[in-house]
Design a protein that fits this description.
With about 210 residues, this protein is an alpha/beta fold. The chain is about 40% helix and about 10% strand.
Length: about 210
């Protein structure tokens, strides 16, 4: 395909952080005596973008307290680690010579900044959209529609790289081509609407040559 702009998801595609987010969510729910399983986390959070706290309570005030605790705990778990997935830096370095790129993530900006404090990846991107930059999160198309506005490109010449069903749904709803690289946690999700499914990020270099 003629690719003028690549929109990258972050967690699970560029960095291995989804397991830490699960850990923080599980620890938060454990305070209510609820044991969150990986399967529940994957189906509710990663596949549909809903809150796992709905499993244990309908109390909005309590859910907000749990979210604040989880976000703080997740931030601590992120600190002082190298989160890059294999092949990411090398692939981005090669693709950056051919096409423009940006990150479109559901991560909060404070978490994103911790993740990439020492990643040396941000120079590859024209812009980054975090959770605070849009109203509706994936699977709503708003994040990718906003990315298109920022890029100024025709959607037919843009490519999204995702690892989750909700990210794929958001990209397709925005009229974009979406290739999926499943992560360990998302490998069992339904990617039947993906334009292509890849085994590893390094494959992009040859496919976009």
């Amino acid at each position: 395909m003629a690719c003028e702009f690549i929109f990258w998801d972050n967690d699970g595609v560029l960095v291995d952080t989804e397991g830490l987010y699960y850990q923080a969510s599980r620890e938060a729910l454990a305070q209510l005596g609820f044991d969150l399983t990986p399967e529940q986390f994957t189906a509710i959070s990663l596949a549909s973008g809903r809150s796992v706290f709905e499993l244990a309570t309908n109390d909005q005030a309590l859910m907000e307290k749990l979210r604040q605790w989880r976000n703080a705990r997740y931030g601590k778990l992120l600190e002082g680690r190298d989160h890059l997935l294999p092949g990411v830096r090398e692939t981005l370095a090669q693709l950056a010579t051919r096409t423009s790129m940006a990150v479109v993530t559901s991560s909060r900006r404070d978490h994103f900044e911790i993740i990439h404090a020492n990643s040396r990846l941000l120079a590859f991107f024209d812009f980054v959209l975090c959770r605070e930059d849009y109203r509706e999160a994936k699977p709503d198309p708003e994040p990718y529609l906003l990315a298109l506005q920022h890029s100024g490109r025709d959607p037919r010449n843009c490519l999204v790289i995702e690892d989750s069903a909700r990210g794929l749904e958001a990209a397709k709803a925005a009229g974009l081509t979406c290739w999926v690289i499943p992560s360990t946690l998302t490998s069992g999700q339904d990617f039947s609407t993906a334009d292509r499914i890849l085994n590893r990020i390094e494959d992009l270099v040859g496919l976009l040559a």
